[in-house]
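Hi Y.,

Following your request, here is the sequence exactly as I used it, all 387 residues.
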Amino acid sequence: MVPIKYNIRSLRSRWVSSMMTVLGTGLVVWASVLSFGLADGLNHTLEVSGEKLDIIVMRKGSTAETNSTVSEAVSREIDALSGIATNADGAKLCSPELVVLDNVPRRGDNGRANMMIRGVSPVAKYLRKDFKIVEGRENRPGVREAITSRSMARRFEGAGLGEELEAIDGKFLIVGLFEAGQGATESEVWADIDVVAQASKREGARSSIQIRANNPSDATRLIDRIKNDPQFGLDAITETAYFAEQANSGMALKIVGRTIAIILTIGAMFAVANTMYAAVASRAREIGTLRAVGFGRTTVLVSFLLESIILCLAGGVLGCLGVLPLNGISTGTANWQTFSELTFAFRFGPVVLIQALLLALFMGAAGGLFPAIRATRLKIVDALREI
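Below is the corresponding structure, written out as tokens. Let me know if you'd prefer a different format.
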């Protein structure tokens, strides 16, 4: 086995080309990790939004709350069903809600996007994971006040604490900012359901009903009862299944990210191959000397592959370090099921970083393979004659 210090010294002697390869690989890994972290952040937001005992009730045939309508009278019948859990105050965890979309300007003159405004009653907060007001206060019933998340406040004009949001043919005073476990709820603005219904001229209508069952058997029974009653004309689905379907809307983002990563990786492999071919050409006498003193073809092959892998792993580490400052930064994309903006944060966890390092390892192995094979095929006598 050729001592690894030989490879390290070789890379140091060719530090310019080595650094260019490391930087190029680092940029490829950086861009790839960025796309991986984007997809992982979107998946995380939708995965943490669902609770196993929570059920979303919509009109039969609807694929999202935005295209569903449930009458207020039917919502009262749903509330009367048995098997629905209660909170500490004894209130039933059954929340009729009204969802309205409005096209609102983004901050900084960055165009406009559909904002989801949800009309809720006080019980709605008990049906959202880790819901809490972090700044300001809750909105008052019957008043044009609203609450939203910090990410929405940063992204939309008028959505900051103390500002007035122009939406649904009027203005809502933002009186509070909330958190909800980094779930999809943080992509919404909440206001009183009666105020939203009046402003949108949809009095007596609801988009959906969210309920929490006492236990898994009650959840199954409630879903069957709601779906099979022809008088209701409703469909019921667990919240986890609902958000799993929405996750499919982010599939295009994942495909684009993976495609970009593949294209960049192929380009990086050619760059690595060029570097290693140049190394082989300039070190023919070294290769001949190694062979002459007894190192076999396989040993030389492994040695040159190792150099290539070291270069790319160094670039991979550099690329991973480059994305860490972006971890947790909020961004957004269109949710094609609800036709609204979905906010989420970049996530560069261990799985994403390991994927990036494996990508760098693959680039090093694939890019260095053919130059390493060329090195093993040099004839000892011819190699020793090289200048």
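The mean pLDDT is 85.

Thanks again,
Q.
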